[in-house]
Amino acid sequence: MSISALHQIFQQFPTICTDTRKITDNCIFFALKGDNFNGNDYAESALREGAAYAVVDDKKYAGFDKVFLVDDVLETLQGLAKYHRNHRAAKIIALTGSNGKTTTKELIFSVLSQKYKTVATVGNLNNHIGVPLTLLSIKEDTEIAIVEMGANHLKEIEFLCSIALPDFGYITNFGKAHLEGFGGVEGVIKGKSELYEFITTHNGIAFLNADDPIQLEKLGTYIHKYGFTQNKKDYYKIEFLKADPCVSLQVEDTCIQSHLIGSYNFTNCCAAIVMGKYFNIPLDVIKQAIESYVPQNNRSQIIDKDGRQIILDAYNANPSSMKVALENFSKLEGSPKMAFLGDMFELGESAATEHQIIADLSSQLNIDKVFLLGENFSMTDSSFTKFKNYDDFKSRFMDLGLTKNGKILIKGSRGMALERLLDLL
């Protein structure tokens, strides 16, 4: 079946599903493969559950009613998404970066949706499957689509751009994330910069943090750029005021008080503000949008529990985000301060070194107690109390003698699931 023919059917049944546990009536089921499953085996089940059609790449299903046989289901999904993108008038904003992608995306959505019909990546579905699904969520009346792009290897952002064909691009930052796949920080910079390379090659608009020397270098003399700054000329000035614990900032004569913890969220707010300005949204409306956004899903959430103020930042972690989270936490007023830190994943050969750096940093900061959880942290040379895993921590929890007040930081990679600590605390 051709992509154009499939797109005609998609227009009649505009819901895509890749998981039979989430089948909805009259959706189109794409039988994707994974390391531990083959979606082809669930095609008949999807149709019984209410799917209008199923797209498969296993010949044994050829000739079945309501089943489309293609050479490769994933490539077909990606091709359909690109075809659909080209048949919709929506402007595409793509963003990537080492830290803050999802928060920034949600802030941008909060601002732009005040004036425009806007869609955005759901959660962090930002890979070779998630990006096509976001593009396929664009409706005929959609004016702007915000597409988050994640990557852990070179050429991934380049590939995602070839599908999404963004009109605008923004990189949050370059940090120590996915070092195993990128082969080091230089690889991270090169990989994330593939977005700016696409934008400049295709004469799009590049948004940037003009105080980031790497972004300035990558964009060079490119004229179609629009950025924010605290101290440079020729860019939109936004002033950082404080972060105790949430970020507040000054734009022109307007103060904006966010619900986002930590100075590291300042630039995330700035990106949403500068895009709002570019798209002619009044500053008072931008202020309302930023101030109404409250983080969820274990991302820099503030939880007041039994006399303690808990900062839950357990959605993910890498050396860059861990460093700024700890530095910000140490500057907060009040005591005692306790930090529960979980292992950082996907660091490859750098894992031991990076975990030791974080342990060393923690010992130098104004934090009263630090607890380290995970295989990597448990092998660091430090005087902190260490636990090989969550079960080890749970079994020894009652012996820790924790105070009933103060501030607590919980941060670790997703695989550590440190939100489980809340039940104990």
UniProtKB/TrEMBL annotation:
Q: In which pathway does it act?
A: Cell wall biogenesis; peptidoglycan biosynthesis
Catalytic function, reaction form: D-alanyl-D-alanine + UDP-N-acetyl-alpha-D-muramoyl-L-alanyl-gamma-D-glutamyl-meso-2,6-diaminopimelate + ATP = UDP-N-acetyl-alpha-D-muramoyl-L-alanyl-gamma-D-glutamyl-meso-2,6-diaminopimeloyl-D-alanyl-D-alanine + ADP + phosphate + H(+)
Q: Name one GO biological process term.
A: cell division
Q: Any idea which GO molecular function terms this record carries?
A: ATP binding; UDP-N-acetylmuramoyl-tripeptide-D-alanyl-D-alanine ligase activity
Q: InterPro entries in the record, alphabetically?
A: Mur-like_cat_sf, Mur_ligase_C, Mur_ligase_C_dom_sf, Mur_ligase_cen, Mur_ligase_N, MurCDEF_CellWall_CoF430Synth, MurE/MurF_N, UDP-N-AcMur_synth
Question: Which keywords describe this protein according to UniProt?
Answer: ATP-binding, Cell cycle, Cell division, Cell shape, Cell wall biogenesis/degradation, Cytoplasm, Ligase, Nucleotide-binding, Peptidoglycan synthesis
Please state every residue range assigned to the domain named Mur ligase N-terminal catalytic.
16-60
The entry's ATP-binding residues are G97, S98, N99, G100, K101, T102, T103
The record's annotation in SUPFAM superfamilies points to:
MurD-like peptide ligases, catalytic domain (SSF53623), MurD-like peptide ligases, peptide-binding domain (SSF53244), MurE/MurF N-terminal domain (SSF63418)
Provide the Gene Ontology terms for cellular component: cytoplasm
Indicate the principal place this protein occupies in or around the cell: cytoplasm
Protein's UniProt keywords contain Acetylation: no
* Stretches assigned to the Mur ligase central domain: 96-275
Cited function = Involved in cell wall formation. Catalyzes the final step in the synthesis of UDP-N-acetylmuramoyl-pentapeptide, the precursor of murein.
Family statement drawn from the similarity comment of this UniProt entry: Belongs to the MurCDEF family. MurF subfamily.
Q: Which PANTHER family would you find in this protein's record?
A: UDP-N-ACETYLMURAMOYL-TRIPEPTIDE--D-ALANYL-D-ALANINE LIGASE
Q: By what name is this protein known?
A: UDP-N-acetylmuramoyl-tripeptide--D-alanyl-D-alanine ligase
